[in-house]
Amino acid sequence: MLIIVALFAILALVLFLPFLVKKVEENLEIFLFAMGVLAVTVSARWTWPLVEEALIEPIKITAAVLIAGLLLKFLRPAARKAVGAAISALGVKAFAFAIVVVLGFISSVITAIIAALLLVEVIDCMSLDRTDEIKIVVIACFAIGMGAVLTPLGEPLATITIAKLRGEPYNASFWFLFSEFWRFVVPGVLGFGILAALIVKKGADDSSLKEDRAEGLVDLLLRTAKTYLFVMALVFLGTGFKPIIDAYISKLPATGLFWLNSISAILDNATLAAAEVGPSMSARQLAYALLGLIIAGGMLIPGNIPNIISAGKLRIKSKEWLAVGVPVGAAAMAIFFAALLVFMP
Q: Which of 12, 62, 89, 115 is buried most, with the most CB atoms less than 10 Å from its CB?
């Protein structure tokens, strides 16, 4: 019982300190790594296979971040020219639809991090009304967060989910999340693209969003290292919290998990996935829990990595994000909850 109490105390620190203490938020990867090591120690789950998993599991997504980031750095001038030509050829509305949908789907390959950096470049080239640009950014981040779940390359949430479900009864492979969630993700990404096309208007604005500065090689290498440490931390957290998952979370009803995970609006959804997901969950619980995390993660800036990157580089304020993210996210939560009740009653 003391172990469970201690793990709940660690879980509370993991969930709320990044939101309450700015220093923790700024050094999130190091903080989560320390909490993961502590959780594994408290639950007495240190094994050599766990250490191997923690060292190996982050490699694929980290390599994807590095390679895609290098390509973006060297192809940046050509990409900016292509954006201008595409806007002229397609028109603003069609381009808004295209960029949201394309980034949503390719985020599962190039990672949500690189997709967010591409989004920043695109917005920097558009010079529309600031309010419209904020709407496009927020909606695109919903699509990126949703599309990135399709493969473990896409984002840490998908990486840690695959790692935790690799054994029985799911035997999750690289394409596990794609096979389970494509029927929700594909219409979701397309829906966000349509919404972006409907809200955007023509017209330039001197106060339009501009990138704070272009990323240098040092920035890229630092982001790559942080990604590796973040995923390693999630592996430790997932193993350390297993007693809580088995004893409590796996017994919650699927519908309850969906709405409980609306807290991922203020807390990183990958961290919540590490605390919740486990092989003891049913397929229905897994679907409700993950879709709740994915959708709610777009509502506020701290909820997902693409939000944090885009808002930081384009200097979008929390209130500006909230004004768009909360109503869009609330509507999406309601729509997807209804879809889950139909397809996974």
A: 115
